[in-house]
Write a structure and sequence with these properties.
67% of the residues lie in helices and 5% in strands. By secondary structure, the chain is mostly helical. A hairpin with a 2-residue loop joins strand 4 and strand 5 (488-493).
């Protein structure tokens, strides 16, 4: 039996290898005659526009400013930061380091995530088509085009969207490898999966699900030698070997991170609800609709595609379960779970298969895509004109107007100087700048500058830096409120 399977595979491979290469004109003809390909191309162009439009509108917030801080260092130094405690892999920082040759503007820093975001659209189509069918892939891709969650993080200079891109790529190669059994597909799966983990540590969860799924569903076939093991083993070996240096460092980081406890984020049922709401576009009504469609799609798919249904369920449920287990010992927020959007949207798109065959025409598909896109119009209408991040640009301008040379500026917590210093120069304004985290820090600064006017800049991060609330209480008791802007609050020391 095993020899027969291998013989059939070799004949298929031979046929493909004997196919003459396509010239540019034939590729052009294929594009002009292939309606699904045309639609995916249009969706990708639309996605690129939505992710590049107003790319520099929002100010850099804390994490983006932190990205810039790391990217300014050499490649070796960036790896050193990860090895010594920075709980983010170096790959995205390395890529941003290369981008700095074009400058350090908000647009440049966010350009890579925006491009990765647009390129993820065809991958959603390919995964949906390979896993279920072409129509499912098109709808899943369309959902991602207008996804508020994905657009927001495609315009954020962090690693979440690039990680999703590499995971979707790994998922597609895995599905190809599962169907064709070619060693090249398995090796490419290993490389793409490793790139996902080198981009963000949490990618190890969905990538691990793919490996586990293969072992559970086909383990007996490998043991019985009904299926060749070498291609699969080669891909998993590539995955493991290329991740090894990062895993050695990551285990130590994980132990230290979980040992300090969670200082921000959510846990329990709120984590589940906020994650589903975020994936659905930050909207509770749409989240309810999407989860109903998701469950309905899985039920319909289960009737004749049980393995595919199981894979979608595992990719959706496993990250949630692991996050719930970790949430009490380390910070956990929905953006870490961005890979869940792939099985979520494919499951929603699978609802289209429940429509009778006679009604599933290209026109009905177009209507379905249009309706799903229109659902997100209210969010998109306000997103590009309203600040969705701390406006450090506007705040810095206002700060310059109220301060005078010799004034003291204290940031609470101190690491908020990263986004402030991107827009504000205390050297230019002649002010002194300090950071503080605890009430003792604040009291010491007041004692050190008894004759100076002292301004305090506080954000909600104060509770992450000082969970005891002592610094917040000190500000309440010793300062007067001077104003706020998009979650950035200014206080001045009371007389």
């Amino acid at each position: 039996m095993g020899k027969k399977i291998r013989s059939e595979k070799r004949s298929v491979i031979t046929q493909k290898n004997n196919t003459p290469p396509q010239n540019p004109s034939s590729l052009k003809e294929k594009l002009l005659s292939n309606r699904p390909l045309q639609l995916v191309l249009l969706l990708t162009i639309a996605a690129l526009f939505l992710r590049l439009y107003q790319l520099g509108f929002n100010s850099l917030w804390l994490d983006e400013a932190s990205t810039l801080g790391f990217a300014r260092h050499s490649l070796g130094e960036i790896w050193g930061f990860t090895a010594s405690g920075e709980f983010n892999p170096p790959l995205f920082y390395w890529m941003e380091h290369m981008m700095l040759i074009f400058g350090e503007s908000e647009f440049v820093l966010r350009l890579l995530p925006a491009i990765f975001g647009a390129l993820t659209i065809p991958l959603f189509y390919l995964v949906g088509r390979e896993l279920i069918d072409e129509q499912t892939g098109i709808i899943a891709a369309a959902l991602l085009v207008v996804s508020p969650f994905h657009i927001f993080y495609s315009q954020d200079a962090r690693a979440y969207v690039p990680m999703l891109f590499f995971f979707a790529l790994a998922c597609w190669f895995y599905l190809l490898a599962r169907r064709r059994g070619l060693i090249v597909d398995w090796v490419l799966f290993g490389i793409a999966g490793s790139l996902a983990v080198w981009t963000h540590f949490y990618a190890i969860v969905p990538v691990g699900v793919l490996v586990l799924f293969e072992a559970v569903t086909r383990g007996r076939e490998y043991l019985a030698k009904e299926r060749p093991l070498i291609p699969t083993a080669a891909g998993i070996a590539v995955l493991a070997i290329t991740m090894l240096p990062l895993l050695i460092v990551g285990i130590g980081l994980f132990i230290s991170r979980t040992g300090t406890g969670a200082v921000f984020g959510t846990s329990g049922l709120p984590l589940i609800l906020s994650t589903i709401e975020s994936l659905s576009g930050f909207s509770t009504p749409i989240a309810i609709l999407f989860i109903i469609l998701f469950i309905t799609g899985l039920i319909g798919l289960f009737m004749n595609r049980r393995e595919e249904t199981l894979l979608l369920i595992l990719l959706f449920i496993t990250p949630l379960i692991i996050s719930l287990l970790l949430a009490g010992s380390m910070p956990m927020v929905p953006r870490y779970l961005i890979a869940m959007i792939l099985p979520f949207f494919i499951g929603i798109a699978a609802v289209f298969r429940l429509i009778p065959d006679g009604l599933r025409s290209p026109h009905v598909l177009a209507v379905a895509v249009l309706v799903l896109c229109l659902i997100q119009v209210p969010f998109l209408a306000g997103y590009y004109t309203t600040y969705s991040k701390n406006d450090w640009r506007g705040f810095s301008g206002a700060l310059s107007e109220v301060t005078e040379p010799g004034d003291v500026i204290v940031l609470v917590p101190g690491y908020m100087r990263q986004p402030l210093d991107y827009y504000y120069s205390n050297a230019t304004d002649g002010t002194l700048q300090f950071g503080a985290t605890t009430a003792d820090n604040l009291e010491s600064l007041r004692f050190s500058h008894p004759e100076d006017r002292i301004f305090f800049i506080m954000t909600g991060d104060i509770f992450a830096a000082d969970p005891s609330g002592g610094a917040y209480t000190w500000l309440e008791q010793n300062t007067g409120y001077a104003g706020s802007l998009t979650g950035i609050h200014l206080f001045v020391l009371s007389e």
